[in-house]
Each structure stands twice: as C-alpha cells, then as structure tokens.
Specification:
Layout (H helix, E strand, L loop, with lengths): L1 H38 L5 E14 L4 E6 L6 E2 L4 E6 L1 H26 L3 H33 L5 H30 L3 H26 L2 E3 L4 E6 L6 E2 L4 E18 L11 E6 L5 E16 L5 H4 L5 E9 L11 E5 L1
Antiparallel strand pairs: 1-8, 1-12, 2-4, 2-7, 3-6, 4-5, 6-8, 8-11, 9-10, 9-12, 10-11
Amino acid sequence: MDNHNDNIQEKKAGRGLTITMFVIAAIVAIVAIIGFVFMNRPDGYVEGQVEGTTVRVSGKLAGRVVELYHSAGDTVRAGDTLAHIHSSVVEAQLVQARAMREAAAAQNRAVDAGARMQTIQTAADLLAQAEAAVTISERTYQRMERLFNEGVVSEQKRDEARAAYDAAVAGRNAAQSQLSLARAGARSEEREASAALVDAAGGSVEQVEALLADSYLTAPCDGTIDEVYPEVGELVALGAPIMSVLRTDDRWVTFNVREELLDRLPMGQRINVMIPALGGRDIEVEVYYIRDMGSYATWRSTKATGSYDSRTFQIKARPTSEVENLRPGMSAIYKQ
C-alpha cells in the first residue's frame, strides 16, 4: 500500500515538473517574440548620426605651455584667447634681431654722412662683437651637437643652438659689410646696399615678431572646446595641436542608405528626421551631399533574395534652421 502511494506521488511530481517546464518554455518563447518585434528597427526607418566640424588650434611657435585659459566643454567666441606658449629662444632672437636692425640703421646713417674715423671704428667694434657672438654660438652649437649624439638633449635644443649660430654668422657678415662700406667711402651703390641691409634687418625683426605674436593662441571660430591636448608646463613642438574647437554653426546628419532610396533623397530634398536625444523632436534637414561608398549594402543579399546586390550611398543633410542643443554623436531617425 505504501509503495502504491509512493508511485502516485512520484507521478504527480513528474507531471508537475513537466507542466512547469512547459510554462517556462512558453514564457521564453513569448519574450523572444516580443523582443524580435519591438527591439528590431522596422525596415521603414533609417538611422543616421549628427556630425560637426572640429577645428584644431595650433601655433607656429615651439615652446612651453604657460597657461590654458579654457578647458574642455567651455563655450568660446572667435578671437578668445585659448593658451599662452612661451619660448625664451625666440625672445632672445627678437632682441638680437632688433639689435642688428639698430646697427644696420646706424651704419646706414654713417654711410650717408661719410666715412669718418669714428664711423670706421664703430663698424670695427660691431664686427668684433659679431665675431665674438659667432665664437660663443659656435661653441654652444658644437656642445649641443655632442650632447645630442650622446642622447642627453633633444633634437629641438640642438636645432635651436644651430639657429642661433646661423644668426650670429649672418650678423658677422652684415657687420663685415658695414665695415667695408665705411672704409671704402659712400658711393651711390653703397648707399643702396646699406639701405637694403636696413630693410633686411627690419624684415628679420618682423619675422621674429610674427612668431611671438603666435604665442597667444586664439579661437578661430565660435564653438565649444572639444578637447585639450597638453597640460600646463609641457613642451609643445612646432605646429602641435593645443586644443580642438567644435564649431557652433556647422552641424549635419549623415545616413548610409541603399541605392533604391536615392530617388527619395535627391540633392536639395528636404526631409524630417527625429532626434531621440532631443525628446524625439523632428527637425527639417536638406540634402547637400551624395557619395557612393564603394561597398555593398547588407540589406539585400543576392543569395537571400535571388535578386541583386544593392550598393551603399552616403547622404549628408544640414538643418534648414538653427537647432538648439543639437550635438555631434546624436542619433537621427529618418522614416521612409
């Protein structure tokens, strides 16, 4: 009797387990069907992305970052100061260039006044100073070259020493020319040459001043600071990017579509797209760019449909009016 009751209980337990497994399987199937229906994007929708122009800010001056006036996320206007880069080498070159300009101007005045003994002596003194500068800069350059070969100093330091040496040689040559002019007397050709040296010296000053003017980097356009690359105190090379500015007035939407949809999206066509990040807001955009991507779309496969391969085209469209808070990276949905 007990065995009979035990068999009945086992059959009931087995039947209950079977029913439970059937219910679980049914629930899983229903969830899978719901996920397939609601989680997959309908074929009538094309998803794109909002993009924007990013401008990298860099300068013509190699040096050390002294100060950063803005950080990532800040809104800036065109002309706002972004960073300050300091270069002691270029500032020294400016002092030297100005001194050479003054020397050239003084010698030009002396040529116009005639070759006096004092003028000749002054030219000789300037030449002596220039030769001393050549000697010092040459030794410095040789020392930097040796340290560079040993891996002690950077290539930039070696190049700066070389530039200083070349400038000193040019100054010595100019001083030698001035001394020769003073000793030979002032002829018309010599006056013209002296004036040309003054112009050349003035051009050198303007060149160095132009470099120093770029020590303060400014925003090229209105926008938002997207990224800051160096930290304060770091050395930056010539042309190295300091910041990138995301332009405020340049936004567009990019779609990759099958070629069958091109007849609905010709150049100049205005369409409405939905931006989920803006609360599902619809905005109007105008197609201005169409390009074959050179690859085949995966929506229509020859083997699957028995028809043909469909090429992919990239389409870009700009908003027809300003859209507040529209930012690159946001999704854009176009309903066919």
